[in-house]
Recover the amino acids of this structure.
């Protein structure tokens, strides 16, 4: 970690001093000991505030949406995949970015200190796109079952699934921390905030809570990189990824697709191919 931060600081200072970028998006110490916080560094003198540790779990790609300046960003594997999403979806241009890639062996859970669930099964620890690396590439994990928890839910009966999801979201207060931390949720007006028409109620009625989570998950289908920011941000420790991982699994099985691995292809749900599965059509 110390070697990483030394390199991150050196790269950031150089880029700011020579005018390659106008700002660096990275992490600094947070107000909580288990959460490093995102920050914008605009002066070379301030790179001393940058940190890198196992608490840098928020996806920094969330701060790139529609930016106009030249900017550097510190990116681990999942962050880099969301940067790919942003470029494909025309939210940022590749030539605006200097990507400081950070090979990553995982972030710690904010409450337990153990490895985050998504990191334990991550198979893309290294950045897929970068301009300069802050450290040597790490060995990728193989032989892990990324969808073991999804398969358990798939094997349940209908009544068991209903009870499972009712219990999963029972403590949700609709604070929208999961949405706000998600780099995919960049709509100017979210469907939950629409009033004409009003797609979903504003309170904590169980139907409205489920509607919010299910619709948000479907908006992420084929785009989610399983970065875990949604769960890291949730004050109620809800396993928000249960839905997005199911859709990630479906995209892998139906389309052979993993999000954010290439700039050359668009996600399967915003393209059409004559070979697309159509077994659902009767």
């Amino acid at each position: 970690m110390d070697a990483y931060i030394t390199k991150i600081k050196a790269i950031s200072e150089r880029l700011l001093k020579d005018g390659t970028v106008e700002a660096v998006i990275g992490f600094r110490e947070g107000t909580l000991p288990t959460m490093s916080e995102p920050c914008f560094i605009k002066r070379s003198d301030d790179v001393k505030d940058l940190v890198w540790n196992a608490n840098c779990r928020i996806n920094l790609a969330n701060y790139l949406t529609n930016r106009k300046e030249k900017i550097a960003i510190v990116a681990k594997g999942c962050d880099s995949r969301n940067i790919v999403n942003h470029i494909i979806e025309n939210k940022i241009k590749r030539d605006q970015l200097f990507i400081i890639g950070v090979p990553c062996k995982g972030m710690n859970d904010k409450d337990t200190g153990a490895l985050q669930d998504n990191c334990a099964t991550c198979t893309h620890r290294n950045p897929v796109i970068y301009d300069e690396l802050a450290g040597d590439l790490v060995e990728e994990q193989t032989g892990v079952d990324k969808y073991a928890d999804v398969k358990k839910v798939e094997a349940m009966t209908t009544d068991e699934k209903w009870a499972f999801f009712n219990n999963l979201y029972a403590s949700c207060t609709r604070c929208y921390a999961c949405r706000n931390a998600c780099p995919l949720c960049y709509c100017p007006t979210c469907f939950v905030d629409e009033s004409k028409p009003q797609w979903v109620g504003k309170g904590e009625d169980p139907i409205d809570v489920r509607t919010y989570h299910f619709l948000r998950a479907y908006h992420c289908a084929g785009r989610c990189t399983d970065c875990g920011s949604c769960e890291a941000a949730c004050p109620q420790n809800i396993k928000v990824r249960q839905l997005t991982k199911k859709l990630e699994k479906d995209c892998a099985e139906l389309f052979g697709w993993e999000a954010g691995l290439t700039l050359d292809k668009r996600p399967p749900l915003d393209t059409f191919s004559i070979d697309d599965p159509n077994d659902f059509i009767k």
Notes: The chain is about 30% helix and 10% strand.
